[in-house]
Amino acid sequence: MKVYGYVRVSTAEQANSGESLDTQKAKITGYAMMQGWTVTDIFVEAGVSGSIPLADRPEGARLLAAAGKGDMIITPKLDRMFRSASDALGTLEELKDQGTGLVMIDLGGDVTGNGISKLVFTILSAVAENERERIRERIRDVKRHLASQGIYGGGKVPFGYDVVDGRLVENAEQQAVLQKLKQGRDEGLSLRKIGEAHGMQAMTVKRILDRIERNPD
């Protein structure tokens, strides 16, 4: 039996926190020693978001290619390997079908079995994905609120504005174009026709007009 470890951090900031790569490696090595196992290799995923499916990450793909029947994969925490419930459950079934074990140290053991660890794994995978979506929505809400107050909240600067001292300030030239875009829409012109009149792609016009509808001031 070969034993493989998998560790991940998404940013340099995380690398300096309690989830550093060295900390994760130590947990894997310690767990393996308690089981009487020797770790064959540890796959290190640095600077990669957990939202990317495991098989699409460079080291994740190498890990899945290396692990075979009778082998064991160890990772310190569920969120180091998965942030999507569908990715987690799909990968789990593939590993189970080929006879590869998957130990989540924070869940107490091999989650490919039929015990409580698998049940907890399934529940927490769904919870983790839901929480990620809630965080994204909160970020969007904050940015919308800041924009309504004329404060730049980061990201792409909306057409029609400039950022001056951290605040959104109307760009007179672009605001004039905005009015013409809205006028063209109100007159029933196609997005392509509106765009041609202002040197824009139809999709660019659509994106700008959609933003105006969401935030009509």
TrEMBL record:
Q: Could you tell me one molecular function GO term of this UniProt entry? A: DNA binding
Q: Where's the active site on this chain?
A: 10 (o-(5'-phospho-dna)-serine intermediate)
State the Pfam families in the record.
Answer: Resolvase
Check the record and name the CDD domains matching this protein.
Answer: SR_ResInv (cd03768)
Q: Using the record's annotation, list all stretches that form the Resolvase/invertase-type recombinase catalytic domain.
A: 2-150
Question: Entry's SMART domains?
Answer: Resolvase (SM00857)
Could you tell me the keywords of this UniProt record? DNA integration, DNA recombination, DNA-binding
Look up the record and give one Gene Ontology term from the biological process aspect: DNA integration
According to UniProt, the name of this protein is DNA invertase Pin-like site-specific DNA recombinase
Q: Which organism is it from?
A: Neorhizobium alkalisoli
